[in-house]
Write a structure and sequence with these properties.
Layout: E1 7-9, H1 16-20, E2 24-26, E3 41-46, E4 52-58, E5 64-70, H2 78-95, E6 103-108, E7 117-122, E8 125-130, H3 133-137, H4 139-150, E9 154-158, E10 175-179, E11 186-189, E12 192-195, H5 211-222, E13 229-233, H6 239-247, E14 252-257, H7 260-272, E15 281-284, H8 287-296, E16 301-306, H9 318-332, E17 336-346, H10 353-367, E18 371-377, E19 396-402
Parallel strand pairs: 1-3, 8-9, 13-14, 13-16, 14-15, 16-17
Antiparallel strand pairs: 2-5, 3-4, 4-5, 6-7, 7-8, 9-10, 11-12, 17-19, 18-19
Helix pairs in contact: 2-4, 5-6, 9-10
């Protein structure tokens, strides 16, 4: 093979998942952990007989010791990244109506065969997240490939995400890798306009994974009666509300989030679509406490949306997360008027759809509400996941009629 990369041998019997295409090798699968190898170093994995299995990057500081980039004996360079980025770019051109949408997830980590890489596209600006030591070391060829394929106006690096701590990495301020970001960056999604703060916004500035769910909500909103209200919990910049009010202008929304800055941006998103923000409520509050107060005063709404941040970052937190989802939905369900719609979401990757459904089912039993599931959503087409690596199948959304 004559590889230029250090070699790590896998324990006998631990290579079969990798040969099937799974990108992770846990530390327990190493015959012997290498010494004096810097976190993020490129390595070759070989089986117990010395046969080549794949090439990836190594980190001794995390349970996932090696993340595979390729099962081929090929250089990991700009040409390698160009092929992967081009394949991801082509998929988005095929899956999305880019005449009406210029905001999408361009690289979805393992789902696009680039572990540790998140890249979102905002009307010509790419916001790149590095989650791992390996990606940190490969930024130069990766950035060059993104620039070559997508020809963006700018590429901004965000390394201020908590997940980096699992790799023994610290956070840093956002850093412009190329170009300039225009002030007042505004994107279009399904013909609606949204203002983006790529420097300080949550994640990379916008939650592109809820595009199809927002569009589905618009269908239900059109048929709402006069005087209808919608409570949007964990609303962030009110994407769901903008879609709903654009479809049903008489709808009154209550947008609840802990971030005053996000709610100010939500007001701007209403105005950007010629929807009067003054007709709606933007409440800076803890969503759980707000729900408890609404329940106490007997308030009800035609639609209640529960779209919290992830309750479980790891499998160890799953049981606690499931209790959290049951509690959240138990608080939200009494607020839904009879015949109304509950939209409830989970973005905890360690929680499976059946487990999330059971948490919502328990909430229905606790509150005496019967739920009809109308639609189920998972990752959108710009958030693909691999059948062999379902860990990137993280999003779960239920549209439920409440009786």
């Amino acid at each position: 093979m004559g590889s230029e990369y250090p070699t790590i041998k896998i324990k006998a019997g631990r290579e079969w998942q990798l040969k099937r295409g799974h990108p992770w090798l846990f530390s327990g699968g190493l015959q012997q952990a290498p010494r004096d190898l810097a976190p993020g170093s490129l390595v070759d994995l070989v089986d117990a007989a010395g046969g080549f299995v794949g090439r990836g990057y190594y980190n001794p500081k995390t349970d996932i010791a090696v993340r595979l980039l390729t099962c081929q004996d090929e250089p990991v360079d700009q040409a390698f990244f160009r092929k992967r980025v081009q394949a991801a770019w082509d998929l988005r051109q095929q899956a999305l109506d880019l005449n009406r949408t210029d905001v999408f997830r361009l690289i979805h980590a393992e789902g696009d065969f680039l572990p540790g890489v998140i890249a979102d596209y905002y009307a010509g600006v790419i916001v790149l997240q590095s989650h791992t030591a390996g990606v940190d070391r490969l930024l130069e060829p990766l950035t060059a490939a993104l620039a070559e394929v997508a020809r963006p106006k700018a590429i901004l690096l965000r390394t201020d995400v908590a997940v980096r701590s699992r790799e023994g990495l610290g956070k840093a301020e956002p850093r412009l890798l190329m170009g300039e970001i225009p002030p007042g960056l505004t994107v279009q999604e399904n013909g609606l306009r949204f203002k983006i703060d790529p420097w300080k916004g949550q994640k990379t500035g916008f939650f592109t994974d809820q595009r199809d769910k927002r569009q589905a909500l618009a269908r239900y909103a059109r048929a709402l009666p006069d005087g209808a209200t919608m409570a949007n919990l964990f609303s962030y910049t009110a994407g769901f509300s903008v879609y709903a009010v654009a479809a049903r202008p008489g709808l009154k929304t209550i947008n609840v989030d802990q971030s005053a800055a996000a709610l100010e941006q939500a007001r701007q998103n209403f105005e950007a679509n010629n929807l009067p923000a003054a007709a709606h409520i933007f409440k800076t509050a803890d969503a759980f406490k707000w729900l408890e107060a609404e329940r106490e005063r007997g308030a009800q709404h035609e639609i209640v949306i529960l779209d919290p941040p992830a309750f479980a970052k790891t499998h160890r937190e799953k049981d606690k997360a499931l209790k959290g989802y049951t509690r959240l939905n138990s608080l939200g369900l009494p607020l839904v008027r009879k015949g109304g719609l509950l939209i409830t979401c989970s973005c905890s990757g360690s929680v499976m759809m059946a487990e999330f459904e059971n948490a919502v089912r328990e909430a229905g039993a606790h509150t005496g509400r019967d739920l009809q599931v109308l639609e189920i959503f998972e990752n959108g087409a710009d958030h693909p996941w691999s059948l062999i690596a379902p860990e990137s199948r993280y999003l779960k959304v239920l549209f439920c009629r409440v009786n």
